[in-house]
Structures are given as C-alpha cells and as structure tokens.
Design a protein that fits this description.
Elements (H helix, E strand, L loop, with lengths): L2 H14 L5 E5 L4 E2 L2 H8 L7 E5 H4 L4 H13 L4 H23 L9 H25 L1
Antiparallel strand pairs: 1-2, 1-3
Helix pairs in contact: 5-6
Length: 137
C-alpha cells in the first residue's frame, strides 16, 4: 500500500467530510469512510490488507483556533471573572473525560489540545479493537 498517496487522499477526504475522523483504505487504493465497508471490499481482493488514517495524524490541528473562536463568542457580555470561571469549568470537564477514557488523572501541565488528542486516539483505538473483535466472532 502506498501510505504517502493514501495520506494525500485522506487530506482531501477530511477536507470534504469535516465530521469524519478516520478514512479506511484497501490495498487497491479504494477509500472508505466506514471500516466495515472497507473490510467487505477487501474480502474480494487478492491482497486483503487494509489501513486507516486518522484526521489528527494527517491534518494540521485547528483546535486552538476553534477554541479561541468559541471563547470569543462566549465572552461577549461576560466579566473577566465569569470568563475565567468558564475556562476553569471547561478544563475540569476535559480532565474528567480524560480520566474516564484514559484511566488515569490528567497532567495539569498538558494543554487542552494534548488531552483532546490523547482522548481521541484512545477512543479510536478502542473502536478499532471492538471492530476487530467483532470480525473474529
């Protein structure tokens, strides 16, 4: 499989499908938005190998820009104390989600983007494992 070519195609696909975080490829270069569709197609190929690419691995991060935009929208009409309280509450929610998904306490020195990336990677790995387990059954 040509990872470089698939990476370029994944960038195009992620650009067109903002709600998708994973693209799946078969050995013949076909791209799929569904793991099951990809695996079903691979069953008909001589080389049944598949690969997946994650948005966070191939696209530049825009989390900080999005966070700033969201915060600007929230900030209108709020006092500095309210803004700081909202930031603190948002961070606490993120750390709680991190602890739930990752299974350990979040390092307070890590940025929100780092925590979000770790959460997304773990959730995607869990999905892939569940899918592989289901295929074995």
């Amino acid at each position: 499989m040509n990872k470089e070519k698939n990476t370029e195609r994944a960038k195009e696909i992620f650009g067109a499908y903002a709600d998708k975080d994973t693209v799946y490829f078969t050995s013949d270069g076909q791209a799929f938005l569904s793991d099951s569709d990809c695996r079903n197609h691979a069953k008909n190929l001589v080389d049944k190998q598949t690969m997946s690419l994650e948005r966070i691995d191939v696209m530049p991060s825009t989390d900080s820009e999005d966070d700033e935009t969201d915060l600007d929208e929230k900030e209108e009409g709020l006092t500095e104390a309210q803004i700081e309280a909202q930031k603190k509450e948002d961070r606490q929610k993120l750390e709680a989600l991190y602890a739930e998904v990752i299974g350990e306490e979040a390092n307070p020195d890590k940025s929100d983007t780092v925590l979000k990336t770790a959460i997304t990677k773990k959730q995607n790995a869990d999905k892939a494992k569940a899918s592989a387990d289901a295929d074995k059954a």
